[in-house]
Structures are given as structure tokens and as C-alpha cells.
Specification:
With 623 residues, this protein is mainly beta. The protein has a 6-stranded antiparallel sheet, covered by helices on one side. A hairpin with a 3-residue loop joins strand 16 and strand 17.
């Protein structure tokens, strides 16, 4: 048995076996296992030469040295060797697009005997598109090709067979992979067995990290496996049938990204992907446009220290203590403006070279623009600037980092959908961009809802931190008080009049109900939440009125102040807000969610709204 997390294999060679079918993609194994859509190569095979001498050619397959530690990293080294002193002609025809691995059939047999068969090479050509020639091996010639299992699987559209296979790979124990050369006489079959080392015992907390964005939620379990749920969550296979049911991508019960089983030490949910940092300091992502839901390794990264995700998917590279590090990004504003040249379905990080010697300490990103704060307090922004959200005085998009026109070093930075804000070292808060709902905090009137340059927000005490979201800004002052301006604000009541409820406030408003011991703030879509030192959580904004516990007939449909969230464990250590729903993570690793759940956002196994917290159905106990 190999070391935990590594592949262990023992090889044996068999030169006889059943003749493989002449089809591509997946085929049905002896115990079932529906296959991926097949494309016949009859024209290519039908015109093949006679099988003279083909039986002398030897097929070899080995698990590539150093493969792993994840099942998704499995790579095979294929060889085709002519050990004789004569030329050998194989009964296949190849071209520049169709190589010899396309005629090697792989079979993966999972515990229980279910077998999956697929070709080692892509089958993207037919003989009327490119000229084909017979495959001839000179005396002593050896052809070599390394293939990745994930790359092979990504050739084909997703089906239910994929999901069963990926689930098996995600808990790889005693799998067998074999290869057969199509058309050889007799058929040659080489088999390898491989398995992961014994799974470590699960101890400690159930979930150690919680991430929410839009209509999706993900956690990283204490043992390192990522689970996601909600609307089109990362790792969910792409639609195999565009005309299929609309709720195909709505996942109400947390599902694992199996090929990253027990692999993660940190996770981050970006605009398109869930990315996981492994113990080997490599980054894998799953999500939109990536190999039918399969995780993909991000190329171009080295020395990853930690993930910086949100509006961008980035990693901090080579960080040294508090001095920050370099920044590598993919799948966000920077990579959109600076394409890496990665092939479709793959990921290649682009280093933000202009920041290489700056020491990045914080990244804020949203709405197509990003800002990075360096360890010495410098601020650099890039991306969309149509509304002045880069603070440069123009409305031109910038491909690379530019400096907003600030008057001093920065201690905190935040990016909203169409605006940005920064806290200077002297405690002043400056915002720039545009907000129709007052998220710049400058008041209401001509010219006050947009600023192309950083403008100080009046009426605030000295600030420590700033947070921004959709048309909303929150500020935590150095004295601990929390202030709000923009769309998710609760205005102070006017004596003798009903409470106005959530409404835009164009100037900062204090939230005295939060006290001075708030340790975390989260902004969702039209609502916000705060976590206090003792674990208490309060929320305000749209769809929070039910938290009062009052009957619908008497409660205020638009509560005028933050309300305590009932029914949560006392040891909440993390809150995260999405589109009309919120989740909380306890110190023991339990996850509770409340709010809109029609697309499975609450993770309880049901698709329904819940005004009170419900427990996400994770595969571990947290009590």
C-alpha cells in the first residue's frame, strides 16, 4: 500500500482478451455503466490495411511517475513498440488531428465490477476532412504519449455515467485501469491496479470553511473535501440535454467535488469557480465552462501562499510574513483584459507583473474591477472604469494596475458593484464610482451620486475597516460602531410616523443596535448581516422581517432596525451572505442557512424558503 494520498499500482500484461467494439467515447461495461455519446469511426477503420504483422506490435501502459496525489491527477504513459526487425503496419489510419492514442481503448473498473470504456485520444475527425495514412512502425521504433484522465474525460459531453464514475474516482479504492489496442490481432490488454492509501480518520470540526456567492454556497470539510450546493454550484456537471428540466442545475443537498476528496487546505469561491488550495500548494478549480464539472489544475502558479477570491480568482504567491507577495489571477477582470492564451476548458494564471515588487496584502474585487492594497499602504486598481470606479479621473478601462488619486496610505479597501472605497491611515473614508442609492455617502443632489476621483465621506468618525456590496457601503469605526449608507440602510424613525424600513440613505447612518463588538460584516443582495463577539448574528434589509418572530399580520414587512437571527448555535465563527440568503458556520463546523431557498441555496435537501436557520445536510456531525 502506498503512502496516503499517493497512487499505488502493480502491473500485469495480458495479450489476449475480448475484441473491443469499434466505437468511440464510453461504451457499456459488462456490468452496465451507460456510456458517453459514441461517434463511429467506421470510415477510418473500414479503409484500414490488412492486419499483417500487427500482432507483433506491443502496447504498453503505466501510471505516470509522480502522478497524484489526487485521483484527478491520474496520468498514464502509453507506448506502442515494434520489437521486430521488420516494419509493422497497424489496422488504423491516422492524420494530424487523429493520433494513435485514439485507437487505444481504456477501461476503468470500479469496485463492484462496473466498467467504463473510453478512448485515450480525442475523436474529432472523420476521413473526409483530413487525409489519413496507415500507421507504420519502423523496426525497433517506439511511440510514446502521456494522457491525463481528466483530459480524456473532458473530450465527451456529460451524462449520468460521468457522475457515477466521478463519484467512484472521488473515493478511489481498488480501481483497475486497462488498455486495449483496437484492431490488433490478437487484442492486447494491459492492466494496472491502483488505489489511494488508507483514508485518514475524520476528526475535529465538520466544516472548517464557508463560502457564499450569488445563489451558491460551498464548504471545505475538516478532512479537506469541498461540498457545494445551490444554483448551478461548482462541480455540478454541465447540462447534457439543453431541453432538459430547468432544475437540473439546482442542487438542494450538498454534493462533493469528488476528485478533490480530502485534498483541500483552503477554498475560495470566485465569480466563476470554486478553487481549492492543496497541501502541495497547487490550485484546482471547478465551475462554469470547465470540463463538464471536473476540477482543473490552474497552470502558471508557483509558491502559492493563500487564495484571494471574490470578484476575481487570484492567489498570493511567495508571501513572506506580513510583507505580502505577488499576485496571480485567472477567471476575473485582470485575466479578461489580459488573456493568458489558455485552451478552452483549462486555466492558466496571469501574474500581475506590475505588482511584483509591491507586496500585495489585500484584494477587493466586484463588478468587473479590482483593487489591491500593498503592505505599505499603496492602492492599485484595474478593470472596468465606465463609472469611475478606479478613481483615476477618467472613464477608460485599464488593463493593468493604476493608482487612484488618494492623499495617503490605505489601511482597508472594498469594491462594490459600481463603486470602490478606501480607508486611509488617518481614518478618513474615500469613495469613488457611481451609486444611484447613495453608496458614495456624499448626500443626494446633482453631481453627488458619481465621482471619478476619490472623495471623502462626510459625517463619519475615524474608520478602521470598510465593506462594499451591491449599492451598499458599511464602515466600522475605530471605536467599534458600525455605519451604513446606500441601499441596505435602515433610516432612523421619525416621531409620530411609521418606521420607514430599508431604503436608500445618501449619507452615513449609525446602527446602534450592533453595539461596539462587531467582529464580522457581510453584505448580500439587498440585505446585510453582522456577527458580534459572542456569536450573536443580526441582519437587516429585504426579506429579514420574519426574524422578528411576530405573526405576519402584525409584524412590520420592512423592519426598521437590525434583527437578531434566532436558532443559531452560540459559537458562530463565520457568516456569508448571497442573493437573498445567508449562511453561518459554527465553531464545531455546523452550517445553518436561512432565506431564499427555491433553488436549493439552503442546502437542507429541500427547495423552499425558510425565514429561520435550517441545518445544511453535510455528511458529518458537528455536535
Amino acid at each position: 500500500m502506498g503512502a496516503p494520498g499517493r497512487f499505488h499500482n502493480a502491473a500485469s500484461e495480458r495479450r489476449t482478451g475480448p475484441q473491443p467494439r469499434r466505437r468511440t467515447g464510453w461504451s457499456r461495461g459488462q456490468n452496465g455503466g451507460l456510456g458517453l455519446g459514441a461517434v463511429l469511426l467506421g470510415a477510418v477503420l473500414a479503409g484500414a490495411p490488412a492486419r499483417a504483422h500487427a500482432e507483433a506490435v506491443r502496447l504498453g501502459v503505466a501510471i505516470a511517475e509522480g502522478t497524484g496525489p489526487l485521483p484527478g491527477d491520474l496520468a498514464l504513459d502509453l507506448t506502442l513498440r515494434n520489437p521486430t526487425g521488420k516494419p509493422q503496419t497497424l489496422p488504423v489510419q491516422v492524420c494530424g488531428q487523429l493520433g494513435w492514442p485514439s485507437f487505444v481503448q481504456l477501461q476503468l473498473t470500479v469496485p463492484g465490477g462496473r466498467a467504463y470504456r473510453f478512448r485515450a485520444g480525442g475523436l474529432i475527425d472523420v476521413d473526409d476532412l483530413h487525409p489519413h495514412t496507415p500507421l507504420v512502425l519502423s523496426p525497433g521504433q517506439t511511440l510514446r504519449q502521456r494522457v491525463s484522465l481528466l483530459e480524456v474525460l473532458s473530450y465527451y459531453p456529460a451524462t449520468d455515467a460521468d457522475r457515477r464514475l466521478l463519484a467512484a474516482l472521488g473515493s478511489a479504492q481498488g480501481l483497475e485501469i486497462s488498455a486495449t489496442l483496437v484492431g490488433a490481432a490478437p487484442a492486447q490488454r494491459i492492466s494496472h491496479r491502483f488505489t489511494l492509501g488508507p483514508a485518514p480518520e475524520v476528526r475535529g470540526v465538520c466544516a472548517k470553511q464557508l463560502e457564499v456567492r450569488g445563489g451558491q454556497a460551498c464548504v471545505l470539510l475538516g478532512e479537506g473535501t469541498p461540498y457545494c450546493w445551490g444554483q448551478s454550484p461548482p462541480g455540478a456537471p454541465a447540462h447534457s440535454d439543453p431541453a432538459g428540466p430547468a432544475d437540473d442545475s439546482e442542487v438542494a443537498t450538498p454534493q462533493p467535488i469528488g476528485l478533490l476528496r480530502r485534498a483541500g487546505v483552503e477554498a475560495g469561491l470566485g465569480p466563476y469557480y470554486l478553487c481549492v488550495l492543496t497541501a502541495g500548494r497547487e490550485v484546482y478549480c471547478a465551475g462554469r465552462g470547465l470540463a463538464s464539472g471536473l476540477p482543473v489544475k490552474v497552470a502558471g502558479l508557483s509558491g502559492v501562499s493563500r487564495l484571494l477570491t471574490g470578484g476575481e480568482s487570484c492567489a498570493l504567491l511567495g508571501a513572506d510574513g506580513g510583507r505580502g507577495g505577488r499576485l496571480g489571477c485567472w477567471g476575473g477582470a485582470y485575466s479578461a483584459l489580459n488573456p493568458s492564451g489558455a485552451a478552452p476548458g483549462s486555466l492558466l494564471a496571469t501574474t500581475v507583473t506590475a505588482l511584483d515588487d509591491k507586496g500585495v496584502a489585500e484584494l477587493a474585487a466586484a463588478g468587473g474591477h479590482s483593487c489591491a492594497r500593498t503592505a505599505d499602504g499603496a492602492l492599485f486598481c484595474w478593470g472596468d472604469n465606465a463609472l469611475g470606479q478606479l478613481g483615476t479621473g477618467d472613464v477608460v478601462a485599464h488593463r493593468g494596475p493604476v493608482s487612484p488619486r488618494l492623499t495617503g496610505p490605505v489601511d482597508s479597501v472594498a469594491a462594490g458593484s459600481t463603486h470602490s472605497c478606501a480607508v486611509l491611515r488617518d481614518g478618513g473614508v474615500y469613495c469613488f464610482g457611481k451609486s444611484e442609492h447613495g453608496a458614495l455617502g456624499r448626500g443626494f443632489g446633482p453631481g453627488l451620486l458619481q465621482s471619478l476621483l476619490p472623495t471623502k465621506v462626510p459625517g463619519l468618525p475615524a474608520a478602521a475597516r470598510v465593506f462594499a456590496g451591491y449599492e451598499t457601503t458599511l464602515v466600522q469605526a475605530r471605536d467599534g460602531t458600525v455605519w451604513s449608507f446606500g441601499g441596505n440602510v435602515v433610516l432612523p424613525p421619525v416621531p409620530g410616523r411609521p418606521a420607514p424600513g430599508p431604503a436608500p440613505s445618501y449619507s452615513p447612518q449609525p446602527l446602534p443596535e450592533l453595539g461596539r463588538d462587531v467582529v464580522e460584516l457581510a453584505i448580500g443582495f439587498r440585505h446585510s448581516c453582522a456577527r458580534k463577539q459572542g456569536g450573536e448574528v443580526l441582519c437587516w434589509g429585504e426579506h429579514t422581517s420574519e426574524l422578528s418572530g411576530e405573526p405576519a399580520a402584525v409584524r412590520d414587512p420592512k423592519p426598521s432596525r437590525p434583527l437578531r437571527v434566532p436558532g443559531l448555535p452560540a459559537d458562530i465563527k463565520r457568516i456569508a451572505a448571497g442573493d437573498y440568503f445567508t449562511c453561518a458556520l459554527s465553531g464545531r463546523g455546523a452550517v445553518s442557512c436561512w432565506g431564499q431557498g427555491a433553488a436549493g441555496q439552503l442546502g437542507s435537501g429541500r427547495k423552499e424558503y425558510s425565514p429561520r436557520p435550517v441545518r445544511a445536510a453535510l455528511p458529518c456531525r458537528a455536535d
